[in-house]
Amino acid sequence: xxxxxSTLFGLNIYTEKxxxxxxxxxxxxxxxxxxxxxxxxxxxxxxxxxxxxxxVVVPFRWVTAIADVVLIRHVKDQFxxxxxxxxxxxxxxxxxx
Length: 97
Prior knowledge:
SH3 type barrels; mainly beta; globular; 1 helix; single chain; about 100 residues; about 5% helix; 6-stranded mixed beta sheet
């Protein structure tokens, strides 16, 4: 899959199941290997991410298609809010003192 890096900026990222992830803000490049390794993503879906986070890097290996949007593999359990992680591992929430 080839695309000019500048064409990726501003594209919306969705999973293959249509879940909005965010918007491409930058591309992480491995210059020595001449390949893209990630998509720096902002304007994150608040249902998928802790909104206090400024952004995440989506590994480029997850990308399945690029056109008017970027499609990535559906990775439901890859993105979790901190409270979901606490519930999954039965970690007690910190109490204010």
